[in-house]
Structure formats: structure tokens, C-alpha cells
What we know:
Layout: E1 4-9, H1 14-25, E2 30-34, H2 37-51, E3 55-59, H3 65-75, E4 79-85, H4 100-128, E5 131-138, H5 149-168, E6 174-181, H6 187-190, H7 206-214, E7 221-224, H8 227-239, H9 242-256
Parallel strand pairs: 1-2, 1-4, 2-3, 4-5, 5-6, 6-7
Amino acid sequence: MSRPYTLITGASYGIGEALAIELAQRGQNLILISRSGDKLHQLKSQLEYSYRIDIVLLACDLASEEGQSQAEGLFEKYRISTAILNAAQEWTGAFLDCSLEKMTSIISLNVMSNVRILHTLLEKMRLNGKGSVVVVSSVAALSPMPYCSIYASTKAFMLHLANALQFELEKANVNIATVCVGRTDTGMTRNMNVDNDKMAMKFVTAKESALSIIDKIGKRGSFIVGRDNQLLFGFIRRITPDRFLISLIGRMFENALIRTSLRSEPSALFGQRAKVESD
């Protein structure tokens, strides 16, 4: 029987890199996907030398049709027992200040690449009679978020999809978990158009988020990471009207945004500062 691999998308920086390091320490063979080929090769050399595991790399842009097809082709060659879908792109600012091109790229990476990966891998896991998937979501999925509307909506889509698939594949012994992480100190979040000192939600490290995600491998359900997030998006959200929480989040972003609108300054669209976790 072929050796099993754990797939990590968005693997070269931030949470994805931390996941690769932690799982390598546990002796797992890895398939790492990211846009940054140079960083992937550096990570592969480091982890294979230190932990004597096998690592397969794919440097591609999962936001593109070509990249998604390349990933599907790779899945035909290796037995993936666990998949951690982590790659994501974020854009912070007023909806009308974001170009359609940028929105399309975010939706393609955050939603369509994951849908295609799930469609391919879940069928293989079903036929094998076992498998585990962890969808890395965000607390942004748990409420509409003014000034973060596209990102939050893509994360909400994946949360609902994963929760539905848990039920559909339960009898196939395929476990699907969704982990809603909080604000994590990565290049993507550091390049948001906000003054981080004015954000109510504080940073956790990429390693802390990675460990929370690894803890949910093999489990079913959706999980909110962090007591503060559980209080705000779990307990408080259940006892307050949606409009109150939306207003609270909107005012927080208005206070923290470096600029709330650049429609009068089209040459300086801050949306161009958005980063892809897998850069």
C-alpha cells in the first residue's frame, strides 16, 4: 500500500508553515502547496533533513484555473489521508473600493479552490473508507463583517459547506472539521489596512493557531479557537441581535482602518496591499 500523506495548502508562510513544521515533527509525510516555490524548497530541505520524512511540493496559484488543475493532477499520484485547507486571501476596506478583479481572486482562492479540492479528495477518501479534512476558517465566518465583507463571506461559505459535508460523509468514516481561528500574527494580517493597536481582538502566534488546528484532525464539527472568540462569537452572538454585533464590528473597523475610503484617491487603492497566505 502506498504511504499516506498530509496535504497542507498555503504552506509556505504563517499558519501553513507552522502546520508543516509541527506535523513534520510528528513524522508525517507532507504535500505542501503554495505560490512561493523558493520558500517551499527551503522548507522542504529543512524538514526532510531534520525529521527524515518525505515531502512533495507544488508551487502554483490556487486562485487560478491552472493552479487548481495542477493540484487535482497531483492528487491522482499520492494517497492523501489528511487534508488541511489553509490557503486564503484577505482584503480589508470598503466594499465599493475593492476592484472586481480582486474580489474574483479572493473568491476563487478562498472558495472555488477548496470546493474543487474537496470534490476530488472526498471521493477518494470515501472509496478508501476513511480520511480526515480540516477546513481552516476564521471567526470572520461567524458574523457579517463590514469592511471585511468579501473575506468574511467566503469563510462563511466554507463553514456552511463543511458542516453539511460532515453529515453527508459521516457513514463513510470521513471526518470533517472546521476550525475558526482568531487574529493570527501572519504576513497576511500584518498587511491589513488597519491599525492593529485599535483592534479589539488581539493576535495569537501562528504556532498557537496551528496547534489548535492539529488538535482537530480526525474530529467532526466546527470549533471556535480562543476563549475571547468563544465569548464574543458564541455566547454574546446568541443573546444579542445580529444588527448589534454587526454595528459593533463595523465601528471597530471604522476606528481601526487606516483609511475607510479611497474613492477620491484611485491611485492609492489600499486593497492592493492584501496578501495571500500562500505567497
